[in-house]
Design goal:
alpha+beta; four-stranded mixed beta sheet; single chain; elongated; four-stranded antiparallel beta sheet
């Protein structure tokens, strides 16, 4: 069904209490592994899918147990259902160096220019300053598999809203394009 999450050692230990719900644990996994909301995270124990609303005590998961976690990309229809009626509260911005920050109060009408200004204003991405913000470009992380032979990521236009396809907690990539120096005046 999905791609298993495998750490280099094969497993990743998590400290959880029996009162932790499956949805709370899923949120921990999403945060720890920086999983896009465009992926469905399924948690199984002994082949049984663990359902939201229940805690580990309900399933009698004991200390030292190994859970299976799989990811599956939502279909377009499933994404519409996920996004339907959900308010966009935040997006995540990730630099090519791997730093991820959360931008709160984003809406589907927010433009990349507004997002970049907030990043600069709050010094959220190292190296992104007023002098190079115009050269920085935002790209949807879920479009990265569409990279062509040139390796160029599809960039979002600075002054157009990020749009209706954005899901709460979506991940965007910010890349820095060098700003061309002004032409030297001839003397």
């Amino acid at each position: 069904d999905g791609d298993p999450i495998l750490a280099k050692a094969g497993t990743v230990p998590f400290d959880v209490t029996p009162e932790v719900t499956i949805d709370e644990f899923r949120d921990q996994l999403v945060s720890y592994f920086n999983i896009t909301p465009r992926k469905k995270v399924t948690i199984r124990w002994w082949g049984k899918e663990l359902e939201d609303g229940h805690d580990f005590r309900h399933y009698r998961v004991s200390d030292g147990s190994t859970l299976e976690v799989t990811l599956r990309t939502y279909t377009v229809t499933e994404l519409r259902v996920v996004a339907e009626g959900r308010v966009l509260e935040r997006i995540r911005i990730q630099s090519l160096r791997g730093k991820t920050v959360v931008v709160n109060d984003a809406t589907r009408r927010t433009t990349p220019r507004q997002i970049k200004q907030e990043l600069v204003e709050h010094k959220m991405i190292p190296g992104l300053v007023k002098s190079n913000v115009e050269g920085a470009k935002l790209c949807f992380s879920h479009l990265m598999p569409l990279l062509g032979p040139s390796g160029k990521m599809p960039e979002l236009p600075d002054d157009e809203p990020i749009g209706p396809d954005v899901i709460d907690n979506d991940i965007f990539i910010i890349k820095f394009n060098p700003i061309e120096p002004p032409d030297k005046k001839k003397r």
